[in-house]
Amino acid sequence: MKKVLVLEDETNIRSFVVINLKRAGYETIEAGTGAEALEQLRRNPDIKVALLDIMLPDDMDGFEVCRRIRASNSKIGIIMLTARTQEMDKVTGLMTGADDYVTKPFSPAELTARVDAIYRRTGGEEEAADPAAIQYPPFLLNTRNRTLEKDGQRVKVTQVEYAIMKLFLENPGKALSREEILSEVWGKDYFGELKIVDVNIRRLRLKIEDDPQTPKYITTVWGFGYKWGK
Ligand code: CA
User: Measured in angstroms, how far is the CA atom of residue 8 from the centroid of ligand 1?
Assistant: First the structure.
């Protein structure tokens, strides 16, 4: 069963989300507080995607829940539900480890498209013809268990970050447009914003670059996109 956690304190919004996800074939696990969400994740380790509302009534907001989940789980897909539209919030959410965000009010089609895209990324679908590993010293991308190593040390990456790394390592030296990265990583039917590409790459650079301020692996192609290597 495709399990999705829905953390939302407003019961009418939660019901709306749950009904639409069920209609799209997901099993939903509900939580009204951050503490409940973390407890449900402990009880249901097979949850593949978590939807986290940011504004919650108790001490722990959605960002904090996201941070705590990411501290021990890099595989799960995380989508923030935000009522606010400020870029800062979206960026903060993504920098704390979320893969995507949906701004309220959202349509059922938009919600399920986002969940479907992240679900596919979290290993719901495996690409069978892949080689077992892609090497680009000092990096090793293990495609069997979807992990990344640098100098033999495991780098904790989210599934979206893994997919971006894979795209780069399969196309070293090739300039990839932001549209191309969005389409390859998030899916062709995804209709989110290009900004999500930049934020994910910013976060990935923090994890893989020797000096994230002057990246030498993921380099910027001004006015176009990104490239692996110089
Ligand atoms: Ca709320």
Answer: 6
Ligand 1 center from residue 105 Cα (angstroms): 12
Of all helices (H) and strands (E), which one includes residue 117? helix 108-119
Distance from the CA of 230 to the center of ligand 1, in angstroms?
Answer: 44
Range of the domain at 214: 133-228
Q: What are phi and psi of 5, to 5 degrees?
A: -90, 135
Last residue of a domain, one of 86, 121, 156: 121
- pLDDT (tens digit per residue) in 122-140: 765 544 455 678 888 899 9
Report pLDDT for 44. Answer: 94
Rounded to the nearest angstrom, the distance between the alpha carbon of 133 and the centre of ligand 1 is: 42
pLDDT in tens, 62-96: 999 999 999 988 889 999 998 766 556 666 777 77
Indicate whether 144 and 96 sit together in one domain: no
Q: Give domain status of residue 22, yes or no.
A: yes
Inter-residue contact 159 to 121 (CB < 8 Å): yes
Q: How many domains does the chain have?
A: 2
